[in-house]
Amino acid sequence: MSGKSQHLLLDSNAYFRLGISIHPLLTPAFGTSPQYALYVLAELDDEYATSVRLQGKFEWVTKPEYRADRKTRRYTLPTDKRTAALNAFTFLLNFADDQRINVSREDLKALAAAYVMGIPVVTDDGGMAQVAEANDIECWNTIKLMRVMETAGRIDLDKVTEIVEYWEYDNDLPMALPRLRTMFREYFGSDCPI
Predict the structure, then answer these.
(1) Is 148 part of any domain?
(2) Do 7 and 37 meet the contact criterion of CB atoms below 8 Å apart?
(3) Residue 30 Cα distances to 5, 10, 38, 89, angstroms
(4) Are 22 and 122 in contact (CB under 8 A)?
(5) Residue 18 in domain
(6) pTM, whole model, 2 decimals?
(7) What is the mean pLDDT for each group of 10 consecutive residues in the chain (194 residues)?
(8) Domain that residue 26 falls in
């Protein structure tokens, strides 16, 4: 693979929605010009460890092969960018509080890292998307990520269909069904399977 590299930072909900169905999810990199590399923050594991709800719903996260995939692709800010990320985090936290947007500290850390590094963050969280849009942070959703993965040959349309059907089965749609259907048609050029 050659060409430009594009890092993508997945928040916890994007990771949890895709990680069980595409494994390993974070490795290897895929595509050419750009070559995409998926990452998560270490805070994803911290958030999981403190949430009984997440532990009950996503038991697979603790299996060794999933831990190894996350450990391989933990996004670490370069030392010279850490102060800027901390400042961005503080600004985004104040912005979210002022606008009364409910966003977790872990999500704000992901947005701050994405802002400082100039990389997209992948999330289906409405609050995160609001904060990202208001602060010029590139924000993708899982449908867009799957389209990029499908175009690059990392997954195929059958896998995309399987994932969307699983979301419906698991009652975990990333957005309202009418919007999901519209977006699916826009990105994949066919009717949504649900």
Answers:
(1) no
(2) yes
(3) 10, 15, 9, 30
(4) no
(5) yes
(6) 0.93
(7) 79 95 95 94 92 93 95 94 96 97 94 96 96 97 97 96 96 94 96 95
(8) 5-142
